[in-house]
Amino acid sequence: MRGLYRYLSPFTPDQSGALSVLFELGGLVVICDAGGCAGNVCGFDEPRFYSKKSAVFSACLRDMDAIMGRDDRLIEKTGKALASFPEAKFIAYIGTPVPSVIGTDFRALKRMAEKQFHLPVVTCATNGMDSYDKGEEKAYRALIDTFACGSGLSSAEHVPFAGVWGATPLELAAPGSAELIRNGFTEDGVPVVTFGMDSMLDDVRRCGSAAVNYAVSPAGLAAVQYLQQKYGTEYYVVSPLYRTHGKNAGAGSRPSNADDSAADKTESYVSGGMPHPLTGPVLVVHQQFMANAVRGIIRASCRSLPSGAPETDVATFFDFAPGYAEQGDSRPAGEDEFISLVKNKGYRTIIADPLLARALPGFDGTFIPLPHFAVSGQLHAVRSEAEFLEPLYRELGRV
């Protein structure tokens, strides 16, 4: 039955994805809920709450306020929240199932709040039912529409830079991955802003003047395509594991050009200097561009073998960009389709979040953990990108 999950926990929803994009920008973020959704967003879906601060408030909507759609009460509560956070640079309203059910007019809410508080207002009409990447897409678009200037910037703001979009903790391997991406591009002589982690509101204001944009996830792809539409900015899809095996490896936007670091890294685990091929066929499950990058690592590490790399497919429960997929890649609609996919294709190696192993109790092949925060949260979170990839490298390097 589609939608029935007997083994897996619910994935991170769209409201949390929207917050992930807005988290570090210095705004007052209001979750339009009765209290429960905000608790889940802050307590389970955003890992930075363990190390950083962000002004996130619950609207604490009462039953009758929600049923009657009393936006004036929500504006009143926003004013009280601003009193405790007067340095807010903007206000953001994030939707949940409550405003979705009652049909809240977010455009009217935006006008009311801007008139009352004289601050920019960002609204994300998320519904709590879509996946996290849909919320990221809505948040990116709302930020671009509200703040991006394109022209009219000062000369200091026109310093050439590249934008990396889709770089949130829900998309990347580990907390330090955004810094690794920036450092990798810096070595190429390109100053970089990672939109979603370690960026500021001023970066969003000048995003329309970027020299080039890169996407490290399908949600980031939606953002860079929108920026191309608005400002004509060139974009490419690159590996979210930039420092591991090069920006083009397995990305799909250009011919795969994996550098030697993936093979070198693998061979450091191997006593004979030769990697061991995974038993195929292989299935990699993550956000699509991360899974593509892992497939690129497998192919790069096995290219010196006479047998070559095993047949490797990518699957994702989230956004799926057909233009960056290969034959055999898929998007299971739910738990049952994932189980059927593994059974029907006869995969012998699965590389995925450990939580997905619950849905495959009879699987007798090799399961290699590849944590995805949007799937299992802190349960299987890793501290570094090296820790994220180590199980894969260890399996590739077994003798």
Walk me through what this model shows:
The protein is α/β, with parallel strands linked by helices. It contains 16 helices and twelve strands. The protein folds into three domains: 14-145, 3-Layer(aba) Sandwich (Rossmann fold); 155-237, Rossmann fold (3-Layer(aba) Sandwich), CATH 3.40.50.1980; 258-396, Rossmann fold (3-Layer(aba) Sandwich), CATH 3.40.50. Helix 1 (14-22) packs across helix 7 and helix 12 (261-267) crosses helix 13. The longest helix is centred in the middle third of the chain and has 16 residues, at 132-147. The chain is globular and about 70 Å long. Mean pLDDT is 86; it is low at 244-272.
What are the SSEs and their pairings?
Elements: H1 14-22, E1 28-31, H2 36-45, E2 55-58, H3 63-68, H4 71-84, E3 91-94, H5 97-102, H6 106-117, E4 121-124, H7 132-147, E5 162-165, H8 177-187, E6 192-195, H9 201-205, E7 212-215, H10 218-231, E8 235-237, H11 242-245, H12 261-267, E9 282-285, H13 288-302, E10 312-315, H14 335-345, E11 349-352, E12 366-369, H15 373-376, H16 385-396
Parallel strand pairs: 1-2, 1-3, 3-4, 5-6, 5-7, 7-8, 9-10, 9-11, 11-12
